[in-house]
């Protein structure tokens, strides 16, 4: 009895560890109190390698909906990808990001989101992430993770300087991309 409950507890612990995703922020249940709500339509023609246009997946698009709560350092996301096919690919913890760069330029990921799940027609990822954040990508000069020290306040203070995208094996620099400048409060 005692032994079997110990074993059960141990097994439960092991399966919890196995189920824990790589850390990119604290996963939270959905909350709905936001300082800023941002709706982004991501398309293949916005994808850049540096500043060179490298079109993403033809016919694909993504709806990236974000809610920012500055005091809680929390971002909620509801990401739907249409027509993004095949496996994800990125050197980061996930292949679905907010990067810091102006429209037409490229820059480091600041937030990594769980990749949308589904088929080649429609994939979805929704939830919330609370800082501190990690992307799994290190700045080559400083060796520091590009998500370290990033806050939702920094994002909220200059949303037009950020874009959202997702990367796949066939479109490693981006299958779809959209600038976060259509925000409304
Ligand atoms: C992106 O640009 C780099 C540097 O110019 C180049 O080595 C790489 O092949 C390019 N990648 C794609 C997918 O265009
Ligand atoms: C995510 O957005 C879709 C429509 O784009 C909506 O049907 C769904 O309810 C949303 N999910 C959440 C958790 O808000
Ligand atoms: C790496 O960090 C340095 C120092 O903070 C910064 O100037 C540079 O832009 C960063 N590089 C990238 C690719 O973000």
From TrEMBL:
<protein>
    <recommendedName>
        <fullName>CHRD domain-containing protein</fullName>
    </recommendedName>
</protein>
<dbReference type="InterPro" id="IPR010895">
    <property type="entry name" value="CHRD"/>
</dbReference>
<feature type="domain" description="CHRD">
    <location>
        <begin position="39"/>
        <end position="182"/>
    </location>
</feature>
<keyword id="KW-0732">Signal</keyword>
<dbReference type="Pfam" id="PF07452">
    <property type="entry name" value="CHRD"/>
</dbReference>
<feature type="signal peptide">
    <location>
        <begin position="1"/>
        <end position="19"/>
    </location>
</feature>
């Amino acid at each position: 009895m005692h032994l079997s409950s110990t074993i059960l507890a141990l097994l439960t612990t092991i399966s919890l560890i196995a189920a824990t995703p790589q850390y990119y922020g604290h996963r939270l249940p959905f909350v709905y109190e936001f300082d800023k709500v941002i709706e982004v339509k991501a398309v293949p023609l916005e994808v850049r390698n540096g500043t060179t246009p490298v079109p993403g997946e033809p016919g694909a698009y993504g709806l990236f909906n974000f809610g920012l709560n500055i005091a809680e350092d929390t971002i909620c996301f509801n990401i739907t990808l249409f027509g993004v096919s095949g496996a994800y690919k990125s050197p980061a913890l996930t292949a679905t990001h907010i990067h810091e760069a102006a429209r037409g330029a490229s820059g480091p990921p600041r937030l990594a989101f769980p990749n949308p799940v589904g088929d080649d027609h429609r994939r979805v990822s929704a939830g919330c992430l609370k800082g501190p954040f990690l992307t799994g990508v290190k700045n080559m000069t400083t060796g520091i993770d590009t998500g370290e020290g990033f806050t939702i306040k920094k994002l909220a203070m200059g949303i037009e300087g950020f874009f959202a995208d997702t990367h796949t094996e066939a479109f490693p620099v981006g299958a779809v991309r959209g600038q976060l400048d259509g925000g409304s409060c």
